[in-house]
């Protein structure tokens, strides 16, 4: 399907990367389980929080090491889906899955305290969206895709700056909150606006922008970093990216830009509704009223909290 049948199990599933991800998941369960008592103020981690972490790791694996990653080298539309899953879905799910006591422990031993200004809301938003937009300038994108070390380093930086951006919205520690209520709403709108120019460039371009998905030689060189075999053999076997494309390179590019913008809008619109709901409740004193009620009453009535 979509040309995946032409590639081996190793090409499709990246066993080494899968092993690393499984080790990280195992480490997470060890930290919140047998080693939890090492952390001051540790509590039992709820099942839903564990599920969020595991789901986030699954999305990250599929986007960066699984079939979605390989498809992202074949079609630009899947590349954008991979980017969205990596930085707009996986990152917040992983962060939400980490309990408060681990966040506090990590911040206490943070060796990068001097760089804490990067987590300031406007700085974090400009940093992530700026790097994301820079990456999708055609000459930058093709260069990154053709240089393995640069590619991995850039993706790691995008992951970190995405986490800094999401920290403003999902920071669970009251003592470290920088914005609340209307500030978060404004921050969400800022992020929605900042990504628009890059998506607009991609959607409304009148020709294919990226040699990685339109030039056979460039495509074969980029593919050499994600599948086994000689790039020349790939070129001889398939002739270029159009062998796998179900759309023309231009249409594929437009679909990718639309997919990225749609996923971003959906995620941030959902977050906007969540933030606005809790801000409205706080303004009307409903959250304070709930917090003051005995836990037994909350659990027994309609105000049960997850």
Amount of helix: 55-70%
Instruction: Report strand %.
Output: under 5%
The mean pLDDT is: 88
Low-confidence stretches: 290-306
Overall radius of gyration: 22 Å
Strands, total number: 0
Structural class: mainly alpha
Contiguous helical run count: 16
- Main sheet characteristics: none
Basic shape = globular
- Element pattern in H and E: HHHHHHHHHHHHHHHH
Oligomeric form of this entry?
single chain
What is the CA–CA distance across the termini?
40 Å
Structure description:
- With 306 residues, the protein is mainly alpha-helical.
- It has 16 helices and no strands.
- Mean pLDDT is 88; it is low at 290-306.
Set out the fold topology.
Elements: H1 9-13, H2 15-32, H3 47-64, H4 67-74, H5 76-97, H6 100-108, H7 121-135, H8 138-145, H9 148-170, H10 182-194, H11 196-204, H12 216-223, H13 231-238, H14 249-283, H15 286-292, H16 295-300
Helix pairs in contact: 2-3, 3-5, 4-5, 5-9, 5-14, 7-9, 7-10, 10-14, 11-14, 12-13
Brief overview, please?
With 306 residues, this protein is mainly α.
Give short descriptive properties of this protein:
mainly alpha; disordered C terminus; 306 residues; single chain; globular
